[in-house]
Design goal:
Number of helices: 22
Strand order of the largest sheet: 3-2-5-6
Structural class: alpha+beta
Number of strands: 8
Distance between the termini: 92 Å
Radius of gyration: 30 Å
Number of domains: 3
Length: 459
C-alpha cells in the first residue's frame, strides 16, 4: 500500500515537472510581442498574479541620463533622415543591404490610386469615378488589371467606351505602368511616358518579349535585320522598366518590427539588453502570500494558483537569461559582422553556441526563433547569424554568405562576351577553397539575382 502511494506521488511529481518544463519551453520560444499576450492572459486568469508597476526600467538603473537617451535618439533620427550627412543615397544603400531597414510602404497601392482618382474625377463626375474605383479595386498586387473591361462596364452600368476611357486615365496615374492588362502593355505605357517607345525598343516590346526572356539575342537580331549588339542595347533599355509597378506598395500597412534584444555600444565593446518595453512585469499578489486561517479547500486552491504564478515568473526570468546569454555569445563571435555588415559573417552553428553557454542546441534554437535583435546598424533576425560551414580551405571555413560573395565577384569580373558557365564557376570556387557543387552554384547565383551564362552574354 505504501509502495503504491509512493509510486503515485512520484508520478504526480514527474507529471508536474513535465508540465513546468513544457511551459518553460513554450515561454522561451515566444517573441516579446507573443509573450505580452501570454502574460495578459495569465494575469486575467490567475488572481495570484499582479502587475509590478515599480519594475519599469528607469534611467538611473541603466546608468544613463535622460538627456543622453534623447541625444542618442536625435542622432539616430538625424542619421536615418539624412543618411549620416551623405544625402538620401546613403540611406537607400543601407536599406538595400538590410531589408529590415527599408522604409515600409506607408500607403497601399489602392490608397495612392484612390487619391489620384479623386483629383481626376472631382464632384460632378461621380459616374466616371465609380468606374475608376471599380478598376482600382480590380488590380492585383503588381498593379495589373485582372478583370475584363466588359465586366467592369457591366458592373458599373456604363458603356464599353466609357470604361475604356476611364482605364486610359487610370493608366496615366503613378506609378507608371499601373492598370496594364499584360506585360507588354505595362512596358509600353512606361516606354511611352519616357519617350523611348520607338524603333527597336517598340518592336521588342510588341513582338519579342518571350525571346528576350529566353536570351535569344541572335534570333531577335536575325528577325529584325539588325546587329546583336543593337538588340542587346534595346534589351538593356527595356530592363530599366518596371514589370511590376504595384509591387513597391504594400497590400496593407506593415507592422513595425519590435526587437526582442538591443545591442548597444559600451566603450570598446557592446552591452546586451532585453527589450521589455510593452511587456508587463509580474509579481505575486501580497493577498495570496498568506493563506493562514482559511479552510483546506481554499488553501489548496490558493496554493495551486500561487505555484502556477511563481513558475510563470520563473519561466519568464529564465527566458530572459537564456536569450541574453545566447545573444552575448553571438556578439562575441560575430563582432566583425555587427560592425562591418553581412559580408563579414563567419560560420557559426547553433551547436557551437549551445556548447559555449552549456545548454542544448534546441534551447538555442528556441531562444532565437522568431526574435529580432537591434544592432547599431539596424534590426535583424537573431537566426541570421547562424550558418553552416560549407567548405574548408586550409584552416578557414566558408559560410554560405562568403561563398556567395566569392561567386558574385567571379560573375562581376567575367568577360561579358564569354560569361562563365555554372560548371566553370564551381571549378573556380573550388580553386579558391570553396568546394561546392554545380547545383549549389545555380542556387546561389539565382538567389543573388544573376541570370544564366546564356542570358548574361553581351554582344
Amino acid at each position: 500500500m505504501e509502495q503504491s502511494q509512493a509510486l503515485q506521488e512520484n508520478l504526480s511529481q514527474h507529471l508536474a515537472m513535465t508540465m513546468k518544463m513544457q511551459q518553460a519551453i513554450k515561454i522561451l520560444q515566444l517573441s516579446a510581442q507573443d509573450l505580452r499576450g501570454v502574460i495578459e492572459k495569465e494575469y486575467l486568469e490567475n488572481p495570484a498574479l499582479e502587475i509590478d508597476y515599480d519594475r519599469a526600467v528607469s534611467f538611473a538603473e541603466t546608468g544613463k541620463s535622460e538627456q543622453a537617451y534623447r541625444a542618442e535618439d536625435i542622432s539616430a533620427l538625424a542619421a536615418y533622415l539624412g543618411g549620416s550627412g551623405r544625402g538620401d543615397e546613403a540611406g537607400t544603400a543601407e536599406a538595400e543591404k538590410n531589408p529590415v531597414l527599408a522604409r515600409p510602404a506607408s500607403r497601399t497601392l489602392e490608397a495612392e490610386l484612390m487619391e489620384q482618382a479623386a483629383f481626376a474625377y472631382p464632384a460632378g463626375r461621380e459616374r466616371e469615378r465609380a468606374v475608376a474605383v471599380f478598376l482600382i479595386g480590380s488590380l492585383d498586387g503588381s498593379g495589373y488589371l485582372r478583370v475584363p473591361l466588359a465586366e467592369a462596364a457591366r458592373a458599373t452600368q456604363v458603356s464599353g467606351a466609357e470604361a475604356e476611357a476611364v482605364l486610359e486615365v487610370l493608366q496615366t496615374f503613378e506609378p507608371a505602368g499601373v492598370g496594364a492588362r499584360d506585360l507588354a502593355e505595362c512596358l509600353r505605357l512606361q516606354a511611352v511616358r519616357r519617350g523611348i517607345y520607338e524603333g527597336l525598343v517598340a518592336h521588342l516590346i510588341d513582338r519579342h518579349l518571350d525571346a528576350i526572356a529566353a536570351g535569344a539575342v541572335k534570333e531577335i537580331a536575325a528577325a529584325e535585320g539588325v546587329r546583336p549588339a543593337d538588340v542587346q542595347l534595346a534589351v538593356d533599355i527595356i530592363r530599366t522598366l518596371n514589370p511590376k509597378p504595384g509591387a513597391a506598395y504594400g497590400t496593407e500597412t506593415p507592422g513595425y518590427i519590435t526587437p526582442d534584444v538591443i545591442v548597444r555600444r559600451q566603450g570598446s565593446g557592446y552591452r546586451v539588453e532585453l527589450n521589455d518595453e510593452g511587456v508587463p512585469q509580474l509579481r505575486i499578489s501580497k493577498l495570496y502570500q498568506h493563506a493562514e486561517g482559511l479552510d483546506s479547500e481554499t488553501q489548496a486552491y490558493i496554493s495551486g494558483r500561487f505555484r502556477a504564478a511563481l513558475w510563470l515568473i520563473k519561466s519568464i526570468e529564465s527566458r530572459r537569461t537564456t536569450i541574453r546569454r545566447v545573444v552575448e555569445e553571438i556578439v562575441r563571435r560575430q563582432r566583425a559582422c555587427i560592425e562591418q555588415g553581412p559580408a563579414a559573417l563567419v560560420p557559426m552553428t547553433m551547436q557551437e553556441v549551445a556548447d559555449a553557454i552549456g545548454v542544448h542546441e534546441s534551447t538555442v534554437s528556441r531562444a532565437a526563433a522568431g526574435k529580432y535583435v537591434e544592432l547599431p546598424r539596424g534590426i535583424v533576425p537573431i537566426k541570421s547569424f547562424f550558418t553552416a560551414n560549407l567548405a574548408a580551405g586550409g584552416a578557414a571555413a566558408y559560410s554560405a554568405v562568403q561563398v556567395k560573395r566569392e561567386l558574385a565577384a567571379l560573375i562581376e569580373g567575367e568577360n561579358p562576351a564569354k560569361p562563365l558557365s555554372d560548371a566553370k564557376l564551381a571549378k573556380l570556387l573550388e580553386e579558391r577553397g570553396c568546394a561546392v557543387s554545380r547545383r549549389t552554384v545555380v542556387k546561389y547565383r539565382e538567389q543573388l539575382g544573376y541570370a544564366s551564362s546564356v542570358k548574361r552574354k553581351r554582344y
